[in-house]
Input
Amino acid sequence: MSAPEPRSVLAGSFTPGPRGKPGVAGVTLMELRTGLVEIAARRGQETALDTELQRHLGLGLPEPGHAFEAGDVAALWMAPATAMILAPPARLDPLLGAIAPAVAAVLDQSGGFAALRISGPMASAALAKGCRLDLDARVFPGGRVARSVIAQVPAILYRPAGDVGFDVIVPATFARSFAEFLCNAAAEFGCTILPAGPRPVVS
Amino acid sequence: MQQIACPWCGVRDEAEFRYRGDASQHRPAPDAGLDAFLAYVYERKNPYGWHVEWWHHVHGCRRVLKLARHTLTHQIAAVGQPQDELPLPPDEAR
Amino acid sequence: MSGYRLAAGGRIDRGVTLPFTWDGRVCQGHGGDTLASALLANGVRLVGRSFKYHRPRGIITAGPEEPCALVTLSVGARRDANTPAPIVELFAGLQAESQNRWPSLKFDVMAVNSLFASIMPAGFYYKTFMWPPAFWERVYEPMIRRAAGLGRAAQEPDPDHYEHEHSHCDVLVVGAGAAGLSAARAAADAGARVILVEQDYELGGGLLVEPALEAWRRAAIAALDGRVRVLARTTAVGAYDHGVFAAVERIGDHLPKSEPHRARQRLHVIRARHAVLATGAVERLVAFPDNDRPGVMLASAARAYANRWGVAVGKRVALFTNNDEAYATATDLAAAGVEIAAIVDVRAESQAASLALKAGLPVRLDHEVCGISAARGGVHGIHIRRIGTAKSEYVSADALCVSGGYSPQVQLASQARTPLAWSEAIAAFVPGVEAGPVRSAGAARGIFGVREAAADGEAAGRAAAAALGLKSAAPVPLPDTAVPTHTPLAPLWSVDAPGKAFVDLQNDVTADDLRLAHREGYSHIEHAKRYTTFAMATDQGKIGSLVGSAVLAQARGEPVAAVGLPRFRPYTTPVAWGALAGADVGAHFKPERLLPLHDWHTRNGAVFVKIGLWLRPLVYSPSGDTGWEPVLAEARAVRRSVGMTDVSSLGKIDVQGPDAAQFLDRIYANTASTIAVGKSRYGLMLREDGMLFDDGTIARLSPDHFLITATTQKSADVLEHMEWHLQTVWSDLDVTLTNVADHWAQFAVAGPNARRVLEAVVTGLDLSNTAFPFMALAEARIADVPGRVFRISFSGEQAYEVAVPAGHAEHVWTAILAAGKPHGIVPYGLDALNVLRIEKGHVTGGEINGQTTPHDLGLGGMLKKSGDFVGRTLGQRAGLLESSRLQLVGLAPTDVTHRLRGGAHLVSLAGEGPSQGFVTATCMAAEGKGWIGLALLAGGRARHGERLIAASPVYGEAVEVTVITPHHVDRENARVRT
Output
């Protein structure tokens, strides 16, 4: 017996293909396959954690409301001295256990969240139907992160640099409701669901 | 919809927060006795005017904030960390 | 029949003919018409019956302030009642009906109310239908509802959908008249993000009735293109704290059917840093006798129908005014070829009157209208008299245009906490000192004249931008209009003559009603409002509330400024429930939380139950049978061999840090710091008042690392409770709390064969009873997936809980089922789980109900004797320790065939006396026969063996029960340790 690949909570319910208004794709949705690790520095250990993260991942602890992204790794601010690391599981496995408990609490959250990328010209218009935050690029530019609630679902919202849309990370048990909200919100703009895949790498 | 300027997350809707009431109350020392705990749990001023309050940003950074808020106008004079002493504007004459 | 379509003029598209029906009669309108303009063009004058007296009513206004012409649109599920006809955009095939008439509009049985009007004064309902109280619900209210009412709502589910949008801007401009257009342009020129909302389907406000200013209007709109978010058909309905506004966008109301995939209406929640309220002003009525007769209309409305829609409201039109502005109605109508019967002006002299006289119009200065002659329900003449005299003169006319002056639309400003101030110049309230980021502009603050309003709007837009630190750009071009000189208006509120003079046309409130309210002591404007129902109708008294205040002021002998207006509250106009609910309806009312195994449960016949947001398997019953048979089969499998249930919805909080143990000692009522690494303990959390808050397990993974569980229902509350205490009370402690609930799928494997089953799938862990005793925990591989195994039991059997990352849930679950197959393993749902815990006397939400203490539930012995913890001091209050309190007991019916009901009250065997407690949980026993239950009974622990009656008046049942221990099964708790 061997463990299979973890199964996505959206598997079987978020079928690739067009949705809503035919003939246009104002919004494109894609489930992102990613590992997640939540890291919280112990009191007074922020600098030590930053150093550790630099060593293991090549990026540090992000400032409030911001993210670092390099290659296939992104570090999103979650709370003071706390970050969520998104990366392929193979990159994260060495991290678990590598950072001393005296420096930070390091917790695998890969099963706990689903990540979706929302892109296309009407992405923010669709999100605005449930998201309370101002997503205007002047206010919430690339590299910004916010934790909020979207369509009654707690969400981590990240806008990667390079105008690629938004990454929204929601608790796994809410993922289907959230995906349904997105499909409904995007229907009037025409919506395309892409096959799930890894987070596109920033070049 | 009140707008609360979270020091960590920026200005957010009050719907992201859980109101936790009077922040001028401090939990008594463990051996302070029954009366002190009764006052801590049950006695509230319910002022007409400025009020120091706990607002827990449960749909954001999950930090508990201390607010100086006017109970009539809903004006927010200050937002701080839990241990901050917030300066209260004077209560206007009624 | 008196209105008609003018041969020329208006903004309508005469090339487009739109058929529609009115009360079944086929009519025709043109592109650009509203239902109101089309009805007037078709000669329809009588459009409804009034609310209380069923008096015939016509169209009074040309906008959303309309109090009378409320109609029902469409049929079937799309039927929409109480819509003001002037805001309905005409489309081909529109079906409209009049309201509040039976059997027909022209012959209305309830019009008899009018004859008894003298015995139905203000406060009539309060005075008459007082006794007996029970009659209110059963007799009076249905009767009143039938007699006085508006349209009926559709009974079917709404086929359209609605949605919300969260919108943001630097400057919100409400109203796209001259002031609003200029404000938006000035703010946008300075670089501000601007949203402009306009309730009308065309931008321009008052400009739409000024053909000469069309070029300026077009240029002003074009200047916004691409820079300002313009939302037409969007009404700002509320101003809230901190610059938040609500606005309803009507996306599909003007279409026969909403477009596919598009909402019918969208509620915008707009967060604006600054706002310019350019909401204009509304003309007000004058309270003279019979001022409600069809054919009486506000002067500005009559002008709008002529200039915007090419409709004359009558063939021979009279005007009653106290101001110069209203003369434009007479001159424009005269220019369109309509005969002017008389211009009745209460003032002794006026510049506008002089000009009108020069133009040959019949002006009667120093006169007032003291009555209406009506035939077939409508005006056919007016009675006028010189002010201060009694003798009246009859003037033939089929329409009367009325102007009592203009009231700035201050609702939003007032809601935004701008105080109102009285303006003598316009005899109306205007926004007073504006200190905050909300500014009024143009007619909304009493600045009249197109050029003046545009300039005022520009200044407001500029000021908003400047306050945002934005530099102003070049001046906004203003319309080139001659500045007319004005003779000031003469305040005019009511005419003292016999007959019903209405101040509120929708709720049928007269000037006399307000005087009566004052005589009876309801002199405060808010009291008078509620006593008479004045300004409480769907139009909120936009054209009459100031008149009502003035009449009340006269009765009180005080200035209007001292009386004020009734307080404005959201919404400024009626809002559809659909818009308020948005997309959060039906299945989407709340998000659903699905277990990681949801699909497996579905495929395997689970019947789901909704608990909070969760969907959880209640029982696995492919046949759909939710009776006791499949439940007991599941529970018995656990008692006899082995079963497995999905407990993934449990709250799971990771607690780490050097002070973690100390923190948990203070949060839990029992001790966490003495738990050995690799062991768990049952934990109780109290509220600070000493009541039980939640229970769960505390597992120690390493000296500074714990994992605690909370019940499904309380998991969010528990995390908040812990965070709050950690951050505010014990911020000196270095502890990290992380919600890991969704990462871990967790299954309970329970029954005498549980170990045998797990031994087949668990590697890296010796599960033998000595190596892995009750309450032990360890990391292990389960079906080759790294996870954790806890030896804990909720069922009372030998049991384990395995936890694996949620993505592996199905793999591990099916592997355990396969391993358990030789032992007859079954999955079990919540019902079986409940049977097992009731049999064991384990408590859940039914017993931890916020009013019980650990002592009440027999858990007092778990509380630590020393050291601080939340709830310690107040939990020691003598009253909470009394043995007479409701205490947990078990129950069994004396006759095992009798059913026990949850919620049944326990009373004496005679079935009498006060309730001594109540049943919290019941089930059919899996071990043993018949029903068993748990209950909270006064002094219950000392009453085992006593017989009582469990009375359920709801079901008409009284069952004799015996009080027993709550621990029905395995009282010694030996099985969990086997």
